[in-house]
Amino acid sequence: MDTGSGLAVPEKTVLAACGDVELPRMGLVEQVWETDPIPTDELPDRAGAAVESLRFAGVPDGGEVAVGVGSRGIANLSTVVAGVVGRLDELGYEPFVFPAMGSHGGATAEGQREMLASLGVTEESVG
User: Fold this and answer.
1) pTM score, two decimals?
2) How far apart, in whole angstroms, are the C-alpha atoms of residue 105 and residue 28?
3) Who contacts 84 (Cβ-Cβ below 8 Å, separation ≥6)?
4) C-alpha distances in angstroms, 107 versus 50, 110, 113?
């Protein structure tokens, strides 16, 4: 069955993989995100403003704040991360970035650091 998405798997492939397991009835679901694009020049300020909605009551002045960064399809990732890190710094915290991903980068710290660097997220680029 061709759904037009390019993700269809032939029935015989599914049956070969599953053997005699009876599969439930399935349907096609499509998730559509309706968003207003943020102009690129506004990204750092808008990302920094999002920090304002977070609660830091348990973090002492000058305390460290971890910023987990993944590798899954965020446009302008380094600009967004730089905005968050910059705002945390302005608020008097000591932000640090760490890779927040599973198997990307070979599931190793160095591989994930390299993955983030390939996406433009480095200490130099985000602060």
Assistant:
1) 0.69
2) 31
3) 47, 48, 50, 51, 67, 95
4) 29, 9, 10
The DSSP secondary structure of the chain, one letter per residue, reads: ---SSS----HHHHHHHHTTPPPPP----------PPPPGGGHHHHHHHHHTTS--TTS-TT-EEEEEE--S--TTHHHHHHHHHHHHHHTT-EEEEEE--SSGGGGSHHHHHHHHHHTT--HHHH-
CB hemisphere CA count around 23 (13 angstroms): 11
Q: Domain-by-domain residue ranges, the chain?
A: 36-126
pLDDT digits (tens, 9 = 90+) for 99-120: 888 887 788 888 988 999 999 9
Q: Please check whether residue 63 is in contact with residue 93, taking contact to mean a CB–CB distance below 8 angstroms.
A: yes
